Protein: Branched-chain amino acid transport system permease protein
Amino acid sequence: MNLRKIAPLAGLALLFALPVLPVPEFWITQLNYIGLFALVSAGLVLLTGVGGLTSFGQAAFVGLGAYTTAVLCTHYALSPWVGLLVGLAITAVIALMLALLTLRMSGHYLPLATIAWALSLNYTMANMEFLGKYDGIQGLPPIHALGISLQDGRAIYYLIWVIALLAAWGLCNLLDSRPGRAIRALNGATTMAEAMGVSTFRYKVVIFVLAALLASVSGWLFAHLQRTVNPSPFGLKMGIEYLFMAVVGGVGTVWGAFVGAGVFKIIEDQLKEILPALLGSSGNFEIIVLGIVLVLIIKYAPKGIWPYATAALARWFPAEQRQRDWQDAAPLATRPKPAAKELLLEVDKVRKQFGGLVAVNDVSFQIHAGEIIGLIGPNGAGKSTTFNLISGLLPLSSGQVSFRGQAVGGKPSREIARLGMSRTFQHVKMIADMTVLENVALGTYLRSGKDTLQALLRLDREEEKRLFAEAERQLQRIGMGEQMFELAGNLALGPQRLMEIARALCTDPALLLLDEPAAGLRHKEKQALGDVLRQLRQEGMSVLLVEHDMEFVMGLTDRIVVMEFGTKLIEGEPAVIQASPIVRAAYLGTEH
Ligand SMILES: Nc1ncnc2c1ncn2[C@@H]1O[C@H](COP(=O)(O)OP(=O)(O)OP(=O)(O)O)[C@@H](O)[C@H]1O
Structure:
């Protein structure tokens, strides 16, 4: 067994041995709070660090969990376990409602909205007679588990840490899964994820509710640890501190939440002791120091402590490559192929206006099964906009697009992807900190079905093997098998474009839209790409490509559509286009 496997086991053994060792009560209490805080900030890692949705309101969900169990156990003498379940149910419903109301907001509106509902939930707790107003509710019973009363700190310690570590395990599982890859796309790659068939809004809701549930569990444990609840630990200040923990620890990594919670709790307590003694007067001076620390971390270590810690420890714990265990996985199902020469795509007088600018002006053309069509024209001719209209990225101003006999104008890109149209982007869209293989596997999203719960519980492994087998197959096909374990962000532009093509192929498309696929490729890579596209054509796939490399386009396409100033100039076979004086004039910018 290597050090990488032994060290976590040793750490775990030590963690669970601590309460029976002669460790001072103070440290057990500290660790209890660290576990509780880590639960909340692990949710924030998912929501904010990975999903890019900033929330200042998590403390309010902690309060929901705490107050629900407090009311049920004291007013109705119910078991804390009933309190937990009801607390989770109430949190889920409220989080769902808040998510549906606020998650379509963008920019600074979402954080502002989280502040607003955090304040109002806290205000509710502090002003309802039923909840004991500012005094809160006292006299909560201890939790009983396996016949043991978790009355003191050392006993509840086990429950806190089992739950915290299970949550971390579940979140790590989730991030390494089909829904996890979709979630990792939420922060900056939503357009791409939608084009791969992902409902990004749905996953925003999922992570919002999951983070709220983790906070609620933390509140439940907190209430039964303290045996009393009052509104102050669930206010906006605490909401900000949870975010602080996630940022300090490493907002993009689950274990960063634990580091952040530990660092925060220990520093805060030490500062509370030291600063008043140093300054000779009492006050919450630690807030000032913690504020300064946060600003410094955001400036000098925006990814938090965890990435630095792992880099420093890499000598002893080298990162392990994913095990390639999918060789025998069953292939994914494929969609029925279109009949030879079937009319696949009909672009009928499509128009796009941006204010006064007509970017695409009543353009029409058709694509049949097994054809490679080039869309060319000088810069600003409207090619990419036409692409975006066909693939559903932009709404049509007028006209219609039909794909495989269905009108798709007005449908979102994920619906169009489901019908068998896939695309790449002019500016590569990927998840830079995921491997090439994982990025490509995102293309299999619509060909698979395991979702959040199965991923959390790691019940998705067989399907994952099939997805990775498909991703590897497409990477091999495009000549990138060697690079599958590299981080996508480390690739040069040419290979990144090839990676996008492999990802699009993973959707098993009938029509492939490639936006400047040859840009950034070397001569040999272009030739290889041309060979792959010819092979795909032979298999019955159709390709529409926007490309500036005329040699590549002329040698590959069956027909070419030329655009200029948003209008279709001419359509014909490559030889006709090459000889056309109108096309030459368009490119040279002369009158025609
Ligand atoms: N979102 C937008 N808002 C306003 N104008 C836009 C928008 N997108 C594109 N345009 C304008 O529409 C016109 C067509 O742009 P488009 O990107 O489709 O051209 P293109 O043929 O793909 O050019 P290139 O070869 O340089 O990529 C340009 O004048 C561009 O500035």
Summary: The chain has a mean pLDDT of 92.
